[in-house]
Design goal:
With 160 residues, this protein is of the alpha+beta class. Helices cover 29% and strands 32% of the residues. It has four helices and nine strands; from the N terminus they run βαββαβββαβαββ. The protein has helices at residues 13-23, 41-55, 111-125, 140-145; strands at 6-7, 25-26, 35-36, 60-68, 71-82, 93-102, 128-133, 149-151, 154-158. The strands form two sheets. A seven-stranded mixed beta sheet has the order 1-4-5-6-7-9-8, with helices on both faces. A two-stranded antiparallel sheet has the order 2-3.
C-alpha cells in the first residue's frame, strides 16, 4: 500500500499546530498514559508561526498525509538552517526536523516514515548534508531505520 504524501500549505497550519500539540506530551504519572500538551495561547502562536514558515518555500517545509478533507493524519515539519562551510562539507544548509506527529487514530500505517522520508528528500535536494532531530523513545526505531544515529545530545542523519 502506498501512502499519498503532499507538501503542506499555509491553510494546513491549524491542523499542523494540532498535531504538534499532540506530539508535545506532558509527563504522566506512572499509572497513566502521557497526554497532549495543554491548550493555551501558545497553540495560536504556533499556528501563526507555522503559517509564516510555510510561506517561505525555500527554507521551510512540512509534508503531510491527509486523514480526510480538513484533517491531517500525520506530518513532518523542518527547516533548512544556513551553515558556514567547513572541512566536512561545503553544502549551504543543515536540516532540522522540528516536529513529526501522527494522530493516535492513524498510527501503525507507515505515515510517519512516509512524511519523514519526503522531508529528508526535500532537505537533501535543497543542499542539506546533515539533518538532525530530537526523538522520543517511541520514534527512535523509525529514525534509526532511516540512518539516523546519536550525535549527543541529538540524533542526526548524514548524507554519504
Amino acid at each position: 500500500m502506498s501512502v499519498l504524501v503532499r507538501r503542506a500549505v499555509a491553510a494546513d497550519a491549524g491542523e499542523l499546530a494540532r498535531l504538534r500539540q499532540l506530539s508535545l506530551t506532558c509527563p504522566a504519572v506512572p499509572w497513566t498514559r502521557p497526554r497532549a500538551a495543554p491548550d493555551g495561547p501558545w497553540v495560536k502562536e504556533c499556528q501563526e508561526a507555522i503559517e509564516a514558515m510555510l510561506r517561505d518555500q525555500e527554507t521551510a517545509a512540512a509534508f503531510v498525509v491527509d486523514a480526510e478533507p480538513g484533517r491531517l493524519a500525520a506530518c513532518a515539519m523542518g527547516l533548512l538552517l544556513p551553515r558556514l562551510p567547513g572541512p566536512g562539507s561545503g553544502k549551504p544548509f543543515n536540516g532540522d526536523i522540528s516536529t513529526v506527529a501522527t494522530d493516535p487514530e492513524c498510527r501503525r500505517r507507515g505515515y510517519a516514515r512516509a512524511v519523514v522520508t519526503a522531508l529528508m528528500d526535500w532537505m537533501t535536494v535543497s543542499g542539506c548534508k546533515r539533518i538532525s532531530l530530537a526523538s522520543s523513545p517511541e520514534g527512535e526505531p523509525l529514525y534509526a531505520s532511516l540512518g539516523f544515529a546519536y550525535d549527543d545530545p541529538r540524533m542526526s542523519w548524514q548524507a554519504r
